[in-house]
TrEMBL record:
PANTHER family per record: 2-PHOSPHO-L-LACTATE GUANYLYLTRANSFERASE
Provenance organism: Kribbella karoonensis
The EC number(s) this enzyme carries: 2.7.7.105
Role summary: Guanylyltransferase that catalyzes the activation of phosphoenolpyruvate (PEP) as enolpyruvoyl-2-diphospho-5'-guanosine, via the condensation of PEP with GTP. It is involved in the biosynthesis of coenzyme F420, a hydride carrier cofactor.
A molecular function GO annotation: nucleotidyltransferase activity
Pathway(s) where this gene product acts: Cofactor biosynthesis; coenzyme F420 biosynthesis
Annotated keywords: GTP-binding, Nucleotide-binding, Nucleotidyltransferase, Transferase
Swiss-Prot/TrEMBL catalytic activity: phosphoenolpyruvate + GTP + H(+) = enolpyruvoyl-2-diphospho-5'-guanosine + diphosphate
Protein name (record): Phosphoenolpyruvate guanylyltransferase
NCBIfam families in alphabetical order: F420_cofC
Protein family: Belongs to the CofC family.
Amino-acid positions noted as binding phosphoenolpyruvate in the UniProt annotation, renumbered to this chain: T143, G159, S162
Length: 223
């Protein structure tokens, strides 16, 4: 790996209540959509914690099941006190991170990266040398990671067209080859199929095994 003599990172991962998360997966996975959303968050968190550049992972969530799961993986849960949406949750998490770890950079990371590889995340964080940097998602319009150097406001602008919004705000797009797992967030069944090709984490694989069992008639009705 290139230069690792950079400030360690505190990652902020926002997780919506899984009962309402990943609605675009519902047509393909009506029975297992909440479990998949929870598994994505757990696999993302566990992979992020294995990066040598990640000091701490703060998961901003009010989901009663995600909290214990990511805590068991080694993350710390920050309650979503604003309860006002994604960017507000990230701002809250970034405020906590800056107060507790002022020497660290802060990176907002999508919770929907079930194929995330620690080495690829490390490669990204190692080149986040601008004041603010971001990774464009696989479709090319969204953002999977937004990083701010120590002392720099995160200023998240997630939502539709967030890649352009982040670039317009002065953040620099990361241009690194071989970071497919960092770019592959999952919103649809097609996205999940691509993530499976890359290799998903154990929590997601376990839920997908239940889906397969259901589809073959070994677990009641098919998904």
């Amino acid at each position: 790996m290139a230069d690792l003599q950079v400030a360690p990172w505190t990652l902020v991962i926002p997780v919506k209540r899984t009962a309402i998360a990943k609605s675009r997966l519902a047509p393909a996975y009506p029975q297992h959509r909440p479990e998949l959303a929870r598994a994505f968050a757990v696999d993302t968190t566990a992979a992020a914690l294995r990066s040598p550049l990640v000091h701490t992972v703060l998961v901003v969530t009010d989901d009663p099941q995600v909290g214990p799961d990511v805590t068991a993986a080694g993350a710390r849960v920050v309650p979503d006190l604003p309860a006002a949406g994604l960017n507000e949750a990230l701002l809250h998490g970034a405020t906590v991170a800056a107060a507790e770890f002022p020497g660290n950079g802060i990176a907002a990371l999508s919770a929907d990266l079930p194929a995330l590889r620690p080495a690829e995340l490390t490669a990204v964080l190692a080149v986040c040398t601008a004041a603010r940097s971001f990774v464009v998602d696989e479709p090319g319009t969204g953002t999977t990671l937004l990083a701010a150097a120590p002392g720099v406001p995160l200023d998240p602008r997630f939502g539709v067209g967030s890649a352009l919004a982040h670039q317009a705000s002065g953040a620099v797009p990361i241009e690194v080859a071989g970071i497919e797992s960092v770019r592959r967030d999952v919103d649809t069944a097609a996205d999940l199929a691509h993530a499976v090709q890359l290799g998903v984490g154990p929590a997601t694989a376990e839920v997908l095994s239940l889906v397969l069992g259901a589809a073959t008639g070994t677990e009641g009705l098919a998904c």
